[in-house]
Amino acid sequence: MTMRTLPVGEHGLLVELESGEAAEALHAELLRRAAARLLPAVREIVPAARTVFLDGLADPGRLAAELPGWRIPPLDRGDSEIVEVPVRYDGPDLAEVARRWGVPPEEAVRIHSGTEFRVAFCGFAPGFGYLTGLPERFHMPRRATPRTRVPVGSVGLAGAYTGVYPRASPGGWQLIGTTDAVLWDSAREPAALFTPGTRVRFIPVWDTADTTPDSTTPEQAASEGAAP
Amino acid sequence: MTDSAFVVVRPGALTTVQDLGRGGHAHLGVPRSGALDQPAHRLANRLVGNAEGAATLETTLTGCAVRLRRAATVAVTGAPCPVTVDGRPAAWGAAVRVPAGALLEAGAAAHGVRSYMAFDGGVEAEPVLGSRATDVLSGLGPAPLVDGAVLRLGTPHGPVPGVDGVPHRGVAPELVLPVVLGPRDDWFTPAGLRTLATGDFRVSAASNRIGLRTEGPSLERALDGELASEGMALGALQVPPDGRPVLFLADHPTTGGYPVVGVVPEAYLAAAAQAVPGTPVRFTPLGRASWGPPAGRNATG
């Protein structure tokens, strides 16, 4: 495994890897070693797109020197519990996403809901996970103009990732649906539904008034307040 | 009027509940948060006999006023400011006994930005991930103080130490911030790094609990584009496309896509949090951490 170790201040270490998959594998190995008490004391272990950032190390240089000698098993998709997230595929950008994928909207729903996702990392807001799993041909650019307000529970696509907005906020992701799942609840243990490594599947649901995924037009969905 | 609480009479520009923050949750997208001037927060707590992690009020420039429903020992530290009890002057930087029903006011900061008001027993609020800190980026923790809000106080448990007062560490005419270079110093040209070391920067009025923004010259980049999102450290000097460094403070986002040219050690962040807009800022690059490889070298295993 090729990695680059970069100093971050006096107590931090940024490990850069060749792919998101490699970063997830290193993150999983770091958690295994931390659980087995084989890792020096560390305050934060933060995976991201192609890096893992460790902060609060007494001697980051020592860990940086050891890391290249680690045997890091490939990512084990494993049989851990899958979090199922019910989604109404009624997002204002579903038609656009389907067009870019070259399929009808109902097929786009089948593709998305037929994919097993994994939380690669979290960021942007508490409980916001960057989920990977869609093959590269289904990756999506962000919207040219971000929306000033994306409603809570919106399911969106950007780049390689799928994400669910844990609260209303501005955002540039392509919105394909809405969920009532609570992504973040400070009073819940654990507060976050998605943590790095969580396996996720989106389950299509329809409002009782609707029977098919394409009965909600993008215009109707946009009228609920998601329009930019 | 004898319950263990206080009523907000004047919230000031921004007054929040703060403690030592909720470190250890960055992987969930949760900022550390907590008092920006940690030494001042800890000192205020020690003066009233609290543990250092008890919650205090952090004011911003204009202070705040509260009416106490129980007698309390209080202390105001951080940015020096006039302290009054029912309009009568009281000591700053010292334990002050305030009777039940009295109005306690911290006035506008004479120097600095943030004053800390500690109460014996601490400010009570529902902890989120083990902390009562208000995080202005993510909205976690209690809401910032508003007129008429009622906040509970905890039960005092320690004796109040017999300290008459504490010296103020003084205000420097300029903010000098050492910078450990990296992780992304190689995204800047040698000229850009020279600008960091020699440029005349000033604290921008757009600074807040998330970051200290600077005005001044732009750091020239060697690489264009954005980084893939990566973890961000407290004290990171992130350089957005306009080239002017932003120093990440307690409520900073946990990941980001702009390059971090260097990191200011935590010990210097309290001074940064007290620097008013317009304060000259000088960065003194220290080179990379001693173990760090020269920029660009790959370690292969």
Describe this structure in words.
The complex is a heterodimer of chains A (228) and B (301). Chain A is of the alpha+beta class and 228 residues long. Chain A folds into 2 domains: 67 residues, Gyrase A, domain 2; 145 residues, Cyclophilin, CATH 2.40.100. Chain A is built from 5 helices and 13 strands. In chain A, strands 1-2-4-3 form a 4-stranded antiparallel sheet, covered by helices on one side. A 4-stranded mixed sheet of chain A has the order 5-13-6-7. In chain A, β9 and β10 form a beta hairpin. The longest helix of chain A is centred in the N-terminal third of the chain and has 16 residues. The C terminus of chain A is likely disordered. Chain B has 301 residues and is mainly β. Chain B has 2 domains: 149 residues, no CATH class; 114 residues, Cyclophilin-like (Cyclophilin, Beta Barrel), CATH 2.40.100. Helices cover 8% and strands 29% of the residues of chain B. Chain B is built from 3 helices and 22 strands. In chain B, the strands form 4 sheets. A 7-stranded antiparallel sheet of chain B has the order 7-6-9-4-1-12-11, with no helix packed on it. A 7-stranded mixed beta barrel of chain B has the order 13-20-17-18-15-14-21. In chain B, strands 2-3-10-5-8 form a 5-stranded antiparallel sheet, with helices on one face. In chain B, a hairpin with a 2-residue loop joins β6 and β7. Chain B is elongated, with a radius of gyration of 21 Å. At the A-B interface, β1, β2, β3, β4 and α2 of A face β16, β20 and β22 of B.
